[in-house]
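User: Good morning. I'm curious how zinc ion would be positioned relative to this chain. Could you predict the structure with it bound?
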Amino acid sequence: MNFVYEYYSGLAGLGFWGYVIVTLLWMHGTMMAVTLYYHRDQAHRAVDLHPVIRHICRFWLWLNTGSSTREWVAVHRRHHAHCEREGDPHSPRLYGLKKVLLEGAELYRVAAHDQDTIEKYAKGTPNDWLENNLYAHPKRSYWGPMLLLVFDIVMFGVPGIIMLAFQLVNMPFTAAGVINGLCHAKGYRNFETDDASTNLWPIGLFVAGEELHNNHHAFPTSAKFSMRRHEVDMGWLHLKVLAALGLAKIRRVANPPELASTSSAAPEIDELRAIIVHRMHVLRHFTYNVTLPVLRRELESLGEKRNSLLSAARRYLVWQPEMLDETSRQKFAELVQRHPRLQAVLEFRSELKQLWEGAHTSNERLLTEFREWCARAEQSGIHGMQEFVAYLKSFPAMREQARAS
Ligand SMILES: [Zn+2]
Ligand SMILES: [Zn+2]
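Assistant: Good morning! Here's the predicted structure, ligand included:
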């Protein structure tokens, strides 16, 4: 490295570790701008960043990636609207994991240049002079990375060229590749969302909380992505600091439901609304407190001690059947066939899901069907089912803050 420093080491005049630390902090800044500004503030309106912070992020992201707010937001909202289906701009289920990992940036670019996507999904993003004449201008977007090149060489000298490579590869690799690819294919799931989203914790710590992607798809408008005690959302930690400094206003956070004491009275529509808002937690509760205990008892009564079978079942249950590979699907179907009580439990679960998916029905009908479901569940004699109905009856009436979920 010495010959490089002798040649030109830039105005900053850093040593080797100085360059490493600056590069890492720089990349961290870019990820924070993506997650806090593009994603949580602009795409989902979960937080209101201070206008000064917003503008710093706009400039920073244009400088480091050449992308604009309206493009990123439009592509991302389209991803949520069509997740894993035709129209999803970067689903590994449609394009294959390898393609999304290696060519994620290209898939993003195709969607970002689609005018229909911009018109339909970019509403509410900046539309000012700077956006139209610089950040989102088709012939000037590359000016950002060019400016970064000049800055790096002036400040950091020849090593700045190596730094530039990391700065520019950061977003296409981590956001377009790792998050859009791996976070829809590998990892674990907390919630039974209709898509294939996963959490990558802890290996994705570097990507600022974006790795908790299954949590995010379960609660897209929540400013906080972590849901379980062991999960750390770096973006959320930064957001708390910004909020304490008066530089951010957190609008929505999806916390687990706060339960009241169980009521013997039949739930009213406001309680049912609270249950529906927290449906992801409700389904998770059902899996861990009804489905898996029922299967465990079944196996024990047959003299089988099959921990591996239970952990496989746990995995099957958090994925939608169509998301499983053929072998897993077959194994699960065999398991259900062998254990009729498990089958009965799964039917109850799918009826409950159908209830809230039929939101088009009238309130009265929804409530009647829900009460009937509770009565049948209580009388089913299935282990854990009475406790589960008591859990449902302990949801307090919908309050304003609960609507955040
Ligand atoms: Zn996603
Ligand atoms: Zn999102």
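The chain has 19 helices and two strands. The chain has two domains: 2-250, 269-404.
Let me know if you'd like a different ligand tried.
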